[in-house]
Amino acid sequence: MHALIFDLDGTLVDTVYAHVLAWQGALGEVGIAVEGFRLHRHVGSSGALIVRYAQRMAGRQLSAEQTETVHRRHSELFRQIAPRPRALPGAVQVFGVLRDSQIPCAIATASYRPLIDASLDAVGVGPDTVVVEGNKELRGKPEPDLFLASGKRLGVEAADCIVVGDAVWDHVAARRARMLSVGVLTGGYGEEELYHAGAFRVYGDISDLLHNLDELGIMI
User: Fold this and answer.
1) Are residue 167 and residue 117 in the same domain, yes or no?
2) Same-domain check for residues 75 and 117
3) Residues 168-192: pLDDT tens digits?
4) 8 and 44 share a domain?
5) 183: β partners
6) Enclosing domain of residue 114
7) CA angle 120, 122, 125 (to 5 degrees)
8) Quick one: 45 and 119 in the same domain?
9) How far, in Å, are 15, 20, 36, 123 from residue 32 at the CA level?
């Protein structure tokens, strides 16, 4: 049986640009200025990679204390900018459909609780939904750790898992996990970019995906 593994930000909830502004603000507070469009291209990868990229762009090296401050301030600013994240089209409905059809599914995000609590509430998932979040043991995308851990918790082999994500990082990580992936356009990446990153199909949003699950071999 196939299983679906969903990214969270930009795939299920409309939070990509809130993250861009939060990272931009947090980095600016320690004197690192990075244009929003550049940060957008890295949202979806791990926070550590975003900070690493920003330092490279600015030609500056942050101390461990400054790096910790950036991560803390990003979380604080994000909650201020998006206190009640909005679910993207089809994001609420898809979990009910999959549950009723007994299709295993999970959410895999490099972010973490409590930062993701409001987003999970927006999607309406309960405690029975498998949520794999970033931690020190699991490396963020483009590493495959989050997706591999999701498949393991679902009890489904990697070859039978299908990753759904809005960013190129999702598809690179899925390829490294030896999983099929499909893209959605709700995070701001273009269709061609997602195909080049390894997406098998690209849909407008989760609602569009939901109407075409048979293309993935999932019959409901």
Assistant:
1) yes
2) no
3) 999 999 999 999 999 999 999 999 9
4) no
5) 165, 202
6) 3-14+85-216
7) 50
8) no
9) 22, 14, 12, 34
